[in-house]
Amino acid sequence: MSTRVDPDLRREVARFGADDLDKCINCGNCTAVCSLSEGNTVFPRKTIRYLQLGLKEKLLQSPEPWLCYYCGECSDTCPRDANPGETMMALRRWATAQYDRSGHAAKFYTSAKRLWMAIFLRAMIPLVLLALFHAITGFKWIVTDHVELNTFAPVMWVWLAVVIHFIFLGYRVMSGSLTMSRHVLGASSQPFNLPFVVYLSELKTFLLHFFTQKRWRECGEQHHRRWLEHMFFVSGYLIMLLLVVGLLGWFQTDKIYPIYHPQRWLGYYATVALLYGSISMFVGRIRKRDQIHKFSDLTDWLFPGFLFVGALTGILLHIFRYADWPWPTYVMYVIHVMAMVAMLDVEVGIGKWAHMIYRPLAMYLVRLRERSEELALAAGAATPAAN
Ligand code: SF4
Ligand code: SF4
Q: Which residue's CA is the nearest one to ligand 2's atom 7?
């Protein structure tokens, strides 16, 4: 099989943040210190070498960038200060752009202007829709003597918009995941003739890593605290998604629930987790003490920024609604929805969502590869030698 060299690859990936390639002398120290590098998936030296040589196909076929949890051990100990951890991060951004057929990810990662414009345009969508709704209905659905949020923004209509939006976002994630799978599975030396039941049974690998991100813990004890904080944050994020996508009719309400009601404490839990997570990300990126926070792309700042605005406007909206202040409630609701729509649209497919899906997917694909090789070995052992 021929291997094509792409002379522009280094320059292309440099636009996503891999600036220190020339410093790397391929000594292999980074691979030796990486606790996650094992068996057939060794990195980051090999991955960096592919990049240096312009082996684009090889890189696309490698699940390794997604197996790195950016603990920073390799960058801390690199004798040439070549920042291998950041190179792996840049490769994840680049790979995400390769999987995204719309081309948006590449534009957002490489042009701040385009990213801000996209955020602005997406944030305007709920504002324009609500303004149109009230203009068409002659502003009769804005109750101003007390709060009626579900008259201002009828929950079933909002929920329908949320579902349509999530179908669209789900399509983008599925499309990117399929492209990644095609690249990675296509690289297998074994034909992919696994029984369908293996694809299904190995889904447990995907789910395990999706919900626990447990390999992060394997980076060493010093990363356990950050892993725990991350789990707290992710649990809040997933609860908020569940409340908005699955239970909006219950969550967006004009009823006043007692403090012990799950509608309230689930919302409080998710809000605290999101606030804690976003502030901790901000503090880490400002201090730059850990490797993971030393190089921050604009998208790395935007994610905690959106979450912070979302959590803060959510708290204010809640306070204004319980205080029965109609206009502050409605205005805060609009700002809250604008921030969340912009965040989801920009983040899904390029930012944290892509990482949340592609990392466990890489583990799943690696596992399928292993199963395929095991089956091929077993078949070889069972075949009697000729003559
Ligand atoms: S990135 Fe650093 S540690 Fe890794 S191979 Fe290159 S020079 Fe060696
Ligand atoms: S950042 Fe950590 S997990 Fe990633 S390659 Fe370096 S040592 Fe391995």
A: 34
